[in-house]
Amino acid sequence: MRFVNNGVTRNLFNGLSLSIAKGEFVCILGPSGCGKSSLLNILAGFEKGYAGSVLLNNENILKPDIKRAIVFQDYALFPWLNVIENVSFGLRKKLPSRQERFMQAIRYLELVNLVEHSRSKINELSGGMQQRVAIARALAVQPEILLLDEPLGALDDWSRRNLQSELIKIWLELKQTILFVTHSVDEALLLANRIIVLDINSEKIMDVSFPVEYPRKLDTKECMEIRLQIRESLSQKTKPAYGKSGAANSASEILFDPGI
Amino acid sequence: MVLKTLRHGFFDGAYFPALLQSSKRVFLGYFSAVALGSALGIAISRFKQLSNSVGESLTALQSIPSVAWVPLALLWFGISESAVLFIVILEAFIPCALGVQNAINNIPPKLILAGRSLGCEAFDLYKRVIIPAILPQVISSLRLSWAFAWRALIAGELFISGAGLGQTLELGRSLSDMSEVVAMMLIIAIIGYVADNILFKKLEETVNYYS
Question: Topology of domain B20-159, per CATH?
Answer without folding.
Answer: MetI-like fold (1.10.3720)
